[in-house]
Design a protein that fits this description.
two-stranded antiparallel ribbon, 31% strand, 2 helices
Length: 67
């Protein structure tokens, strides 16, 4: 289990990786209600929601413990 650096919630890393479908161009779609992830500074960072991921991407240095 990973911890969301924005809100501190626990995120199931495996659930955040599972594809729930495919786009028209063949890219995997992920269900954001099960968590989401972003590659940042050479590491995967896991978030419990798209809102948390957006906040992190705006200012990643704001959140302690982020890679």
């Amino acid at each position: 289990m990973a911890t969301c650096p924005v809100c501190g919630s626990t995120v199931d890393e495996e659930a955040a990786k599972v594809a729930s479908g495919m786009t028209a161009h063949g890219a995997s779609e992920i269900d954001p209600t099960t968590g989401t992830r972003q590659f940042h500074d050479g590491n995967w960072v896991y978030f419990d929601s798209l809102e948390c991921r957006s906040k992190f991407l705006i200012s990643p240095d704001t959140y302690p413990g982020s890679p």
